[in-house]
Specification:
The protein is mainly alpha-helical and 137 residues long. It has two helices and no strands.
Length: 137
């Protein structure tokens, strides 16, 4: 540190005389000198507006999170239903394609029978329209 002499006048209040036998306080904390002693008597107790606002914001945030959780659960349920419907459609298409393949094979067999000169072959459509539980809506 630099030990230069300060030519500015000392404006600090004079401290009371130090009793004999007591050690002098070399330096006071600037913050404690500016703030002063703690207030005497009860401190005013009232709602802190900052804390009240934080409570309201916390409540609002929790309500929004609850709504988001409800939406996520609803979407998960909807997605599960959609997946089940897609599985049912796939199964129906596989069954229908199997039926169409069987009808195609029957039609090819009938066509080969006509080529051989068999009489009495049924005249009708080569493919039948699916009906019953395999019919897609």
């Amino acid at each position: 540190m630099d030990d230069r002499h300060d030519d500015r006048p000392d404006t600090r209040p004079e401290s009371p005389p130090i009793p004999s036998g007591a050690e002098p306080i070399e330096a006071r904390s600037t913050a404690s000198a500016l703030v002063g002693p703690p207030p005497v008597g009860p401190t005013p107790v009232g709602p802190d507006p900052v804390l009240e606002r934080l409570d309201r914001l916390s409540d609002l945030l929790l309500r929004r999170l609850d709504r988001l959780e409800e939406r996520v659960r609803s979407l998960e349920q909807d997605n599960g239903e959609i997946i089940n419907l897609l599985i049912a459609v796939k199964a129906g298409l596989e069954e229908a394609s199997g039926d169409l393949i069987a009808q195609l094979e029957d039609a090819e067999d009938a066509a080969e029978g006509e080529d051989r000169g068999e009489e009495g072959a049924e005249d009708g459509p080569l493919f039948e329209a699916p009906c019953g539980p395999t019919m897609l809506h």
